[in-house]
Amino acid sequence: MVLFAITARFSADSGNKCRVKITGGINIQKLKMIGYAVSLNGVDRATQSGIAAAAGFQGHIIPNQLVCNLDVVGTSQIHIATPAKTDSDGKKIANSNPYSTGIPLALSDGLNTIQMGMSGIEFDIGKTIHNEIVVEILKYDNDGGLVPMPTGTPVLVNSADVVSGNAANDIFGRTTIQSIILYFNYNFNSYF
Prior knowledge:
This protein starts with a strand and ends in a 6-residue tail after the last strand. It has one helix at 45-49; strands spanning 2-9, 17-41, 60-61, 65-70, 103-106, 112-140, 146-148, 156-157, 172-174, 176-186. It has a single domain, classed as Jelly Rolls, CATH 2.60.120. The strands form 2 sheets. Strands 1, 2, 4, 5, 6, 7 and 10 form a 7-stranded antiparallel sheet that branches. Strands 3-9-8 form a 3-stranded mixed sheet, with no helix packed on it. By secondary structure, it is mainly β.
């Protein structure tokens, strides 16, 4: 087996999509996911200490999962069942289930998540991967829709993950995606 890792870094300039380079090319029939690591940015300590509200800093708002789209994985191989989106009153919107063909990555309650030792998640590739792989990171919003994961410098927000502008309410830290590493292995086929 050969280790294959995809390392993607995100910034305000790149947004939630990153193009990663491969030198040469690799001939892959099947990729088996064996782990992942996700690093989120959080509001820095000086900002946390500077909150004027009596309650103080209440922690970072961390999604429970991210959805990772990889252009080398066929969209016919991943199907994620999701509940319907809700309106502002919390009522389900008919026929509004967000459809995803991305890999769901569960997150811990901290800014860094590392999950290794996975097995059983295998993707048929059946081609040579040349030059670039596009990695896109999404998350579910408060209404259940899939939206781009924020990038750049995190800011203070209220409990709804919105910048309200009222210092007494903006006591949570929004998280942004910093980097992701996806670990796979595959059977060696041939040299080029």
